[in-house]
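anyone seen this seq b4? input:
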Amino acid sequence: MTAITHYPVMLDEVITALQIKPDGIYIDGTFGRGGHSQVILSQLGPKGRLLVLDKDPDAIAHAKEHIQDERLECHHACFSELWRIVKAQNLVGKIDGILLDLGVSSPQLDVGERGFSFMRDGPLDMRMDPTRGISASEWLKHAAAEDITKVLYEYGEESFAKKIAHKICTTRTQTPIETTKQLASLVAECVFVKKHQKHPATKTFQAIRIFINQEMQAIDEALNNCQELLAYQGRLAVISFHSLEDRKIKQFFRRISKVQLPKGIAIPEKDLQAPFKWVVKRQRPQEEELERNQRARSATLRVAEKALMS
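predicted toks r here
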């Protein structure tokens, strides 16, 4: 097994939360470079299984090349496709743990050609799966100012959304916006930030990336599917990185951890139980992790466990 050469976020906390059983069946819905997956595999016995998914074909190629383990099964797919993959193997209701590490992986940020980072110049792509959909530059060529404004405001919570959208539409009539440096510079002209605050293009890049990859919709679909995919006492661990993701996760966990009273049937609430127990409400990285990996600074881990049948 290859040694971990990057820093998987909140590794110890995730492994503790999943309570890995040697003969269990687990899913890493966001493989990345396999930091979490490798440790999960190390705690599984000969009969254990790990299914890994990733939208990024580079991530799956890395898994197949660097982890030779018959207990590992790789799928080039988004975590929103979990139901299809698990159902095809007759494993619905048999999964002991699911990990979703949301956001962009370090390799995606570090390779300028992927177009995710305003810190590195490269083609303005932003697709987690470059084989599907349209790139960010293609979308910006034709999107209406109103649509760009809506995306920046809803997915980036960008106060200067309208001003940025207008600047994009004015600029593209003269010069196509095709690189990350072009977009970052354009946004910097529109956004006022105080000294020591985040880069002015942070919210814009986040918003466009979320829109291009349909990330919010994928999270909704995955969360709803996980309820049925998990075995009783199976655990769902989710790491989010910005307020939109975290708000969605928190609301979902709050809902499934409440008693659901059947309509029109008089049953005392004390005789009912919630479908899930919220076992980790909010956990942040330790200081020692932040010292070696600043990209973990915005991470939040939440964990829920499927309740036993009463």
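The first strand starts at residue 25 and ends at 28. Confidence is low (pLDDT under 50) at residues 1-5. kinda curious what u guys think
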